[in-house]
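request received
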Amino acid sequence: MSATQPTSSEMRQQMAPLCSVFRRYLKSKGLKYTTERADVLDAIIARDGLFEAEELLLELRKRGHRVSKATSYRTISLLLEAGIIVQALFDSKQAHYQLIYGKEPRDHMVCMKTGTLVEFHSPELTAVRNRICRELGWTPVGHRFQIYAVSPNAPKT
Amino acid sequence: MSATQPTSSEMRQQMAPLCSVFRRYLKSKGLKYTTERADVLDAIIARDGLFEAEELLLELRKRGHRVSKATSYRTISLLLEAGIIVQALFDSKQAHYQLIYGKEPRDHMVCMKTGTLVEFHSPELTAVRNRICRELGWTPVGHRFQIYAVSPNAPKT
DNA sequence: GTCGGTGCAAATGCTTTGCATTGAT
DNA sequence: ATCAATGCAAAGCATTTGCACCGAC
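response:
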């Protein structure tokens, strides 16, 4: 069911641990790999899914790491640039982020009554994306698909 | 109350139903259909596409309507509840909104280099959505598909 | 030793809210 | 007449930034 054929260099990158991917990115930009940045990435890996900035701070505290809110946000920003995480925006309240590097993109279905969130993966969407990009001459990078629906166990009112 | 005369047949067709849909929604909630709310909906119809809160205010001013920022936001909120518009979130900076009622959903492709935005419509996405909902027993309401890509005219760096 | 990084607190900017006044029904 | 709606300005809140000190290379 896989729609994209990763190139060999992509495969190589995917197999490398995330931390070296991040380290490599930082080095390429002349930036430093600090303990705080390592701690933030560890906490994100530990959550392994959707997270928001505040939750990330809690996870860091839970693991006994003291990283300021500012550094946390600054690291999130770097991880976005590095393509290790992406934003997943559900509402205008706050941003959610998602560990994406080396993973198949996950799509989301949200219940409009209960707020229940279901993750799913549909490779055909990647095919649609690639076809549309090809038609317009664009180079695909990523995509997000969100379904708004009502779950079967939502109250009938 | 002075209803603005529609200037094109397209607008005339669209305006009547939308305004009654909104009026009906408000009545069902025991709320009032005020000139300010009508003006906001008119301005949204005039833009006929993606808009953000600040742009909406400019459109209102352009049409000679004085609606406060607060009322504008409050009306946007009501239109969201009524299912007439939906949020289209591209970044965590600010919300974008989209007139959706009675239209096929429009999807978006964003250039990650230039910020160029292209709208497209892909009916097969609706089919994918409906199939996934059916499989899980959910009732589909809407969906959003966003492609992140690089446009052909973006600088190569 | 050099810069870049960090933490803190203050700033930013979109969005929401309290309150006195206005207006739709 | 009644009670919701409006406008203004102030408040909220997630996120960003300025600055003085700290630490990775």
